[in-house]
Design brief:
- The protein has about 100 residues and is mainly β.
- It is built from one helix and five strands; from the N terminus they run E-E-E-E-H-E.
- Strands 1-2-3-4-5 form a five-stranded parallel beta sheet, with no helix packed on it.
- The longest helix is centred in the C-terminal third of the chain and has 5 residues.
- The radius of gyration is 12 Å and the shape is globular.
- The termini are far apart.
Amino acid sequence: IRMVHMDRLDLSHSQIVDISTISQMTELTELSLDDTQVSDLTPLAKCTKLEKVSLRNTAVKDLKPLLAAKKLKLLDVGGSPIEDTQQLAPLVSAGLKIKTS
């Protein structure tokens, strides 16, 4: 199965830690990684079509890789140790809503 053209992916409640293969899924518009041990979002920098991302209860601290997702409208980071949501200020001014609780 070729997953390159997949537009939605839910890996919540899984054992996933490394999401490097997601960088090939450039058509993704929705991604859920809730309740995983994922900490590095760098592979998501290539997923520029993302509109909705859920990172509830993950190990993610740095949101910078999401800056490339200019279409991002909803980001849920409740329960994750995010260091600074101000990194995404340009996206917030473009309409991004960040849920932190």
